[in-house]
């Protein structure tokens, strides 16, 4: 089966930003949504949940990241059910997906921070002032409870000056917004990412080992690499360096900051 998309409702438009006119008639393996899993693997070729549901005749569910129309990545929960005709033959499938972002219930809190001048106006991320207080609180928790372990990721967009020089500062601002949304959508409820300044960001994330911290850094780096800003028919994307340090038990922590790069 060619997996052509024949139905696209308002909820799908709201979650992805793509309209019915843009999606209908395309195929799920086209380059529009580009499903990837939490390990960074592209799903549309060999491990597509929709293709598996059709082939195996069973319902499938998966947590994936899809490409939003504005360029950033968003997490969605996908549930696929095969569709049969009156003879019991599978003729297609219905894919339902819902916003899986842990940030959807934090809008009121974000508005409160904005009123306290703790939100960066360009990216809508929490700012450096908030981060400094947040890190102090995390260190106090670690000292008091001895088990509130966490990691700090210092994120730097590669060659960002080239984006501004080649495409202008408006495009540069859109790239910063794209990176910010991808990072924010990829973190859990108890994790936070802030704009440190310029093209630099800092995320404070949960981790229980050096490996889990490295995996988180690698996932964020991959998701940003797979995001882009459309500019005059061209897809402008960036890569980033991630330096990270951990507040872990001495046996689980590396000796110092470590760097993850493309």
Model description:
The protein is α+β, with helices and mostly antiparallel strands and 262 residues long. α6 packs across α7 (169-185). β1 (60-67) and β2 (73-84) form a beta hairpin. It is built from eight helices and ten strands. It has two domains: 10-99, PAS domain (Beta-Lactamase, 2-Layer Sandwich), CATH 3.30.450.20; 107-260, Reverse transcriptase/Diguanylate cyclase domain (Alpha-Beta Plaits, 2-Layer Sandwich). It has helices spanning 10-16, 20-23, 49-56, 107-115, 128-145, 160-167, 169-185, 210-225; strands at residues 60-67, 73-84, 90-99, 150-157, 192-197, 200-206, 229-231, 234-236, 240-247, 258-260. The strands form three sheets. Strands 5-6-4-9-10 form a five-stranded antiparallel β-sheet, sandwiched between helices. Strands 1-2-3 form a three-stranded antiparallel β-sheet. The mean pLDDT is 83.
Describe the structure in brief.
The protein has helices spanning 10-16, 20-23, 49-56, 107-115, 128-145, 160-167, 169-185, 210-225; strands at 60-67, 73-84, 90-99, 150-157, 192-197, 200-206, 229-231, 234-236, 240-247, 258-260.
Tags for this model:
10 strands, alpha+beta, 2 domains, three-stranded antiparallel β-sheet, Alpha-Beta Plaits, Beta-Lactamase, 262 residues, 26% strand, globular, five-stranded antiparallel β-sheet
Helical percentage: 25-40%
Major beta sheet summary: 5 strands, antiparallel
Order of helices and strands: HHHEEEHHEHHEEHEEEE
The shape, in one word, is: globular
């Amino acid at each position: 089966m060619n997996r052509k998309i024949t139905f696209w409702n308002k909820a799908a438009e709201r979650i992805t930003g793509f309209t019915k006119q843009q999606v209908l008639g395309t195929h799920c393996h086209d380059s529009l949504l580009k499903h990837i899993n939490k390990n960074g693997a592209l799903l549309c070729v060999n491990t597509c949940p929709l293709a598996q549901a059709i082939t195996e005749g069973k319902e499938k569910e998966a947590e994936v990241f899809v490409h939003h129309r504005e360029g950033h990545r968003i997490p969605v929960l996908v549930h696929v059910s095969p569709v049969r005709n009156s003879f019991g033959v599978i003729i297609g499938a219905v894919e339902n997906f819902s916003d899986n972002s842990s940030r959807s219930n934090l809008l009121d809190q974000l508005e409160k921070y904005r009123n306290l001048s703790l939100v960066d106006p360009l990216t809508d991320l929490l700012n450096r002032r908030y981060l400094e207080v947040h890190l102090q609180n995390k260190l106090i928790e670690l000292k008091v409870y001895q088990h509130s372990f966490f990691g700090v990721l210092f994120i730097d967009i590669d060659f960002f000056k080239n984006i501004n020089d080649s495409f202008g500062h408006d495009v540069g601002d859109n790239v910063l917004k794209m990176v910010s949304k991808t990072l924010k959508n990829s973190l859990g409820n108890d994790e936070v990412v802030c704009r440190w300044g310029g093209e630099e960001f800092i995320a404070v994330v949960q981790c229980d080992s050096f490996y889990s911290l490295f995996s988180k850094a690698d996932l964020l780096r991959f998701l940003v690499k797979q995001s882009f800003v459309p500019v005059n028919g061209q897809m402008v994307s960036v890569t980033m360096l991630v330096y990270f340090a951990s507040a872990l038990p001495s046996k689980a922590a590396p000796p110092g900051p470590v760097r993850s790069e493309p």
